[in-house]
């Protein structure tokens, strides 16, 4: 497949995009990085589709932020109607905030009785860590060794994918992600044992454990779905040590895994705190912390919490609309059924292309691990080339994992069978140039 776009921009369009990139660099600085070698100038979205400034259509197989589809009419209507009526904060009484809290809490186990609202998943994880440290009296948090949990100071320090291992403070501990592929899945088999060892190491250094912070899909680590019994054992070790189990559902929640609303339920874990963001608002900035009431009784009276925009009426209206769409359009069932079909197509590619070493899947979440004869650097380079080739061919995906060699496929929940076929056909073409 040619690396050039089948929709070549004319000279004026190319000059306009160069000017846009230059303006972006001048105004936003070097920390803002664009996706793709040829950054995509998007101007419109609808369902599973995104459109660029030249009118080119891209199949979005990556953005879980627009969980129920880009610009879903029901969500847009709820947002605009509430914005035209009232938007303030939670220090005033508001029925819609309570309606939303009640409906959201109705999706999780009954022991999670309080909802606290934020604007982002980073804020949600930050608040969860504060609550865990306050209620447990500990400071140490256990994470996986290439996790990503947010962009605040506290959550960035618990995100080795962003700050590297050296950026994790000494009172926290990293454990190997439960890799189900390498070494015959040894890391997955040993996950609970590794968590227990991390707790013991904390104790020997006078550190009291506060929490185990888990992304249920191990998204940045490479996307893994380990054995449920091992995950429950890991959670039990933390609770026995007086710590809190926090389920980070930002990437794995809201029906994405196709077996229910939440990824932690797949393991039979009863978390003490559940955090969420991104998909909760279909693109509108909302986050939430659902928590055992007893954990915030002391925290609320001694520390308190207020977020000016967290839980505002517009956010609540949007959140309610998202839950209604998930239920009304059968999106969890769709994630299960279309996810299984997509997995079949991807596994068929594994039989055709030696570079595809493993396909990991749960609902509409896929990790496709690529190899290059044991050369990790080459595998990462070629994985990046596959992502770029697919973008040029009209399909958006990304990559993840500590080695950068796992294709990360995570489409909006309305993804359909014909979308899955386009994804597989495009990946087949990209791999043919491997």
Describe the 3D structure.
Strand 2 and strand 3 form a beta hairpin. This protein has 14 helices and 15 strands. Helix 2 runs antiparallel to helix 11. The chain has helices at 11-28, 73-83, 95-105, 121-136, 153-156, 160-163, 186-189, 191-204, 228-240, 293-302, 313-328, 331-352, 376-392, 417-432; strands spanning 42-46, 49-52, 57-60, 114-118, 140-144, 173-175, 209-215, 244-248, 273-276, 287-291, 356-362, 365-370, 395-396, 398-400, 406-409. It folds into two domains: 11-64 and 330-432, Aspartate Aminotransferase, domain 1; 73-328, 3-Layer(aba) Sandwich (Aspartate Aminotransferase, domain 2). Helices cover 41% and strands 16% of the residues. It is globular, with a radius of gyration of 22 Å. The longest helix has 22 residues, at 331-352.
